[in-house]
Amino acid sequence: MPSRYGYQPCREFHAVVLGAGGVGKSCLTAQFVHQEWIENYDPTIEDTYRTQLTVDGRQVMLEILDTAGADQFVAMRDLYMKTGQGFLLVFSITSRSSFDELVSLREDIIRIKDDENIPIVIVGNKADLVDQRQVDRARAFAISQQWQAPYYESSARTRTNVDEVFIDLCRQMLRRDDYHDDSRADDIYYQKAEDPSSSTKKKRRRKRKDRDHRCIIL
Ligand SMILES: Nc1nc2c(ncn2[C@@H]2O[C@H](COP(=O)(O)OP(=O)(O)OP(=O)(O)O)[C@@H](O)[C@H]2O)c(=O)[nH]1
Ligand SMILES: [Mg+2]
């Protein structure tokens, strides 16, 4: 997308992958970054990846923090949430409790970031295990609408919707960056304006575009 500012430098973003233990956070990340499938379960303490990608024609350097789902590392979550600019909230469609955990994760993110509009993608992973499904699509989509965050069903095993969830998150972070750039540009414009009470100038202030709430399935 051409910018109103012309040259677009590479943007750097910090994404954090959160969710209960064993839902497939590391497998999704490994598939996205290295296109590899990991069969064995090796619980994570903390892993960081860096990868460059193009999103809508724009260069993005993405740092991905793959976090621990295990409860003994929960104390580190506040720090992850502080530094993250976008969050993948991952559950397994085969585990109702992993879905329920997302509620408190999102509440913590909003509290720590003090921001209700933080970029979030909800990911129902292990979608290949259809026979073991415990979370209906309708239930997940209801949360997606309530939170105004897109919902994807993914499978790290079959590499379904793996790129899509990370790209969607990058797109949200880019949009947010653009919005802040526009706000800054508008603020400078206001400071320069001779008559700050002018109603025509006030109309230039941009409103945040409606957030997407989509349900993307296999
Ligand atoms: N069938 C299936 N199995 C998966 C999928 N994703 C992950 N798994 C398996 O689930 C197990 C746990 O996956 P991980 O990616 O290690 O889970 P995690 O969320 O990183 O777990 P923690 O690091 O403990 O928080 C592994 O044995 C994976 O092979 C998937 O999409 N489909
Ligand atoms: Mg892991």
TrEMBL record:
State its location(s).
Answer: Cell membrane
**Biological process (GO), any one:** regulation of establishment of cell polarity
Q: What is its EC number?
A: 3.6.5.2
Q: Which GO terms describe its cellular component?
A: plasma membrane
Name the Gene Ontology molecular function terms of this record.
G protein activity; GTP binding
Query: What is its membrane topology?
Result: Lipid-anchor
| Region (Disordered), start-end ranges | 189-212
Q: Which family does it belong to?
A: Belongs to the small GTPase superfamily. Ras family.
Protein name according to UniProt = Ras-related protein RSR1
- The record lists the organism as Apodospora peruviana
